[in-house]
Design goal:
Number of strands: 0
Strand content: under 5%
Order of helices and strands: HHHHH
Structural class: mainly alpha
Number of helices: 5
Distance between the termini: 41 Å
CATH architecture: Up-down Bundle
Radius of gyration: 30 Å
Shape: rod-shaped
CATH topology: Substrate Binding Domain Of Dnak, Chain:A, Domain 2
Length: 232
């Protein structure tokens, strides 16, 4: 694997927390991807509206402008999703931090055990064996507490992290569906029957209906409620 700042920072992490450290860093990449998707979606919405305006077609101008509003709302959904990903990531960081705190306890216990066994084999009558054994008992007791805390935190925070993320995925998807359906309603207001050369299309009279579609979309988003319960 090539050298990078990430690989350097990963290498100085305690062995126990190294994999989760990398996972948390990958979550940052995911967050940046959705932030970029939001910006791109908003830019596309603006460009679509500007294009429609210069077509000199009243119907295309109005419908493309309102589709741009729908696309802009879809882009804004990414902001809420990103916020939830960040919360999910914070739960994973709590597991990582607990892992980092447990590593010295494991290492200390292992070091004392190795030292005790070496001295026992080399000098079985050494008075230091008693002291080492007492230190080892204390280290094992401290490690038991640390390991119990780790398993409790791991289960709790893993569940919380992905509960937040899955809930956010559901919310984003359901709101995208709401907006997409209203977007299709807008498309139905655009008469696309082919004209023969010389024919004149009827005047566009669906402006009020198009505005109502946006109002309906706004109302549906406000009324949206999750149908699922948070994990307990």
């Amino acid at each position: 694997r090539g050298f990078s700042l990430l690989s350097l920072r990963e290498s100085v992490q305690p062995e126990l927390s190294r994999k989760l450290f990398r996972l948390i860093k990958l979550e940052i990449n995911l967050i940046h991807t959705h932030e970029a998707a939001a910006r791109d979606r908003m830019a596309i919405a603006t460009q679509l509206s500007e294009w429609g305006e210069q077509t000199s077609d009243e119907a295309v101008n109005d419908i493309s402008d309102k589709i741009g509003v729908i696309l802009s709302e879809i882009g804004q959904l990414e902001d809420g999703y990103v916020a939830s990903l960040d919360v999910s990531r914070s739960h994973l960081k709590m597991i990582r931090d607990t892992e980092k705190s447990v590593q010295p306890s494991r290492d200390g216990k292992s070091k004392l055990y190795d030292e005790f066994q070496k001295l026992k084999a080399k000098e079985p009558q050494s008075a230091r064996l008693v002291l080492l054994e007492q230190e080892l008992v204390r280290a094992e007791a401290e490690n038991l507490v640390a390991e119990a805390q780790l398993t409790n935190i791991t289960r709790q925070k893993l569940k919380e992290a992905y509960d937040v993320e899955f809930n956010a995925i559901i919310e984003r998807a359901e709101k995208q569906i709401i907006l997409a359906k209203h977007g299709r309603r807008l498309l139905e207001l655009l008469d696309d029957k082919p004209l023969s050369p010389g024919d004149v299309r009827l005047p566009y009279e669906n402006g009020a209906q198009a505005r109502q579609v946006l109002n309906d979309a706004e109302d549906d988003l406000k009324e949206w409620q999750p149908e699922h319960k948070a994990a307990s």
